[in-house]
Structures are given as structure tokens and as C-alpha cells.
Specification:
The protein is mainly alpha-helical. The protein has 6 helices and no strands. The two termini are 27 Å apart.
Length: 197
């Protein structure tokens, strides 16, 4: 009997957790300050931009006598400068410049890597291209639109979580009731078989 209670308890706990998570998302959609998140997101992107350009800076300094080393050095210096701008001088123009940099220069590096090295270079550069594309999608100049979109996504996610949790609860409860009924129906047959022996 305790196994039945444990199963029923876990179904009820899952319902409570799922509904609470959904309600939390719904409430969060009403109080979330997306501009604050975007500001700190840009700072994080700036830091990532600086850190991701350090290896290219070192490679450029080590290979300064080669054309590829000079290109790496120039791109790295520009990348570090733009990363600093993202941290300290946020604005639409700076974000646009950094976004274009994060998309264009990795593509240039991929092209310059040649036929043999382009696949390896894509593995190194895809994250920069993705960050640049995301920054273009959420420019600070489009903050109001970004705010509305993010809040709507979170609100819809909250309602979806609540709906899926309730559906899961109903299906689990029905399965639980059927399993209990099958166990009860099977129990007397086993007893009768033992009595016949």
C-alpha cells in the first residue's frame, strides 16, 4: 500500500512543482526588466569578445612576420577595443559596429583559412557569429520591441508549463487508477489459485 501512496505523492508533487514553475514564469513576465538584462548581456558579450580575442592577439604577436599573423593581430586589437566599448560605452551605434565585427571578421578568418582549414575555423568562430546575430536582433534601439517579445515569450512559456503539467497530471492519475484497478482485479485470482492447490 505504501508503494501506491508513494506513486500518488510523486504525481501530486509533480503537479505542484509544475504549476508553481508556470505561475513563476507568468509573474516574471509582468515584472521582468529586459533593459536591465540587455545592459548586462552586452557587458557579458563585451567580456566574451575580449577573452575570445586574446588567443588571436598572442598568435598575431608570435607570428607578426607572417601576413596571417598581422591579420590576426589587427582583428584581435579591433575585437578587444570593441569589447571594451561594449562594456563601457553602450549604445545602438556601438552595438551595431560590434555586431558587424562579430559576424564579418569570423567570416573573413574562415575564408582566409583555405580549403583545408575552413572546417576547423568554423568550429572556432561560430559562437562569435551567433552572438553578433543575436546582438543585431536585440539592438538597444529596439529595446521596447525586445522587451515586449521577451515578456510575451516568458508569459506563453508559463502558460504552456501550467497546461502541460495539468495534462501530465491527468494522464498520470488515470494511469495510476487503471494500474490500481488491475492489481485489485488480479489479486483475487492469485488467492483462488493458491486455495485450489
Amino acid at each position: 500500500m505504501s508503494a501506491k501512496k508513494n506513486v500518488l505523492s510523486s504525481i501530486i508533487v509533480s503537479l505542484i512543482i509544475g504549476v508553481l514553475l508556470g505561475v513563476l514564469l507568468i509573474v516574471l513576465s509582468g515584472i521582468l526588466d529586459v533593459s536591465f538584462l540587455i545592459k548586462w548581456g552586452l557587458i557579458v558579450v563585451g567580456i566574451i569578445t575580449i577573452i575570445s580575442n586574446v588567443p588571436s592577439l598572442v598568435n598575431g604577436i608570435v607570428n607578426i612576420s607572417k601576413p596571417a599573423g598581422i591579420i590576426d593581430l589587427i582583428f584581435a586589437i579591433i575585437g578587444i577595443a570593441l569589447g571594451c566599448m561594449m562594456i563601457f560605452m553602450q549604445g545602438t551605434v556601438i552595438t551595431l559596429i560590434v555586431s558587424i565585427y562579430l559576424i564579418a571578421f569570423p567570416i573573413v578568418r574562415i575564408v582566409l583559412s583555405g580549403k583545408n582549414g575552413w572546417k576547423d575555423q568554423i568550429k572556432k568562430e561560430w559562437i562569435k557569429i551567433l552572438i553578433g546575430a543575436l546582438m543585431l536582433a536585440f539592438l538597444p534601439g529596439l529595446l521596447a520591441a525586445a522587451d515586449a517579445v521577451v515578456k510575451t515569450i516568458i508569459l506563453v512559456a508559463g502558460w504552456v508549463v501550467v497546461a502541460l503539467t495539468v495534462i501530465f497530471f491527468v494522464i498520470s492519475l488515470i494511469s495510476y487508477i487503471k494500474a490500481c484497478k488491475q492489481l485489485e482485479d488480479a489479486a483475487p485470482i492469485e488467492v483462488e489459485a493458491k486455495d485450489a492447490e
